[in-house]
Amino acid sequence: MMAELMGFLLHKYRTKQPTSKEEMLNAVLRDDQDHFPVVLSQASECLQLVFGVDVKEVAPREHLYVLVPTLGLTYDGMQDDGQSMPNTGLLVILLGVIVLEGDFAPEEAVWRALSKMGLCAGREHFIYGEPRELITNVWVQEGYVEYRQVANSDPARYEFLWGPRAYTETSKLQVLEHFLRVNRKGPSSFPSLSEERVSDEEEGA
Questions:
Q1: Which residues are in the MAGE domain (predicted)?
Q2: Within 10 Å of residue 117's Cβ, how many Cβ atoms?
Q3: What is the pLDDT of residues 37-89, one digit of tens each?
Q4: Which three-class secondary structure state does DSSP give residue 146?
């Protein structure tokens, strides 16, 4: 049920539509309405930690919800092709690694951290795409990170720093809290999250 609701909410996020408790019950939890609070909580946590999307109740009386990028960030990497997935969750992880490395994260430390999530340079990931292009090009152009050569390094070594847009939109404390929650949960906490499952649930939304 959690994966089904998560797919439904991702569809709503992609189409920039709000949703309601009634709509979620009718679409996903038709025969299990008593489980709605627990399932919504689990789906919301997974969306936040994996995709960087927050589910926010904006009208408690009407039980109306909107979906927005987490931690005040304004970028989600969504394309207009209707197929891409938000990658804000990975951006927050990268920003967290930079903070933990003392604000200057060696490139090798970044890839070591990302490899624990199954992300490798040059290998396409079903949620985030090709990570090297994303973190050294796209997010640099967007102003979230800086990617530069370490001074006087020979052979050349590179490091990541926070970019000006990251400082403007969020804080190190918020990022660290999110980062620690992800590490505490780990990928095994979401056994129903798979490429096929998420795609199937979105198509059925």
A1: 1-197
A2: 18
A3: 899 999 999 899 889 999 999 988 889 999 999 999 998 887 665 567 888 99
A4: strand
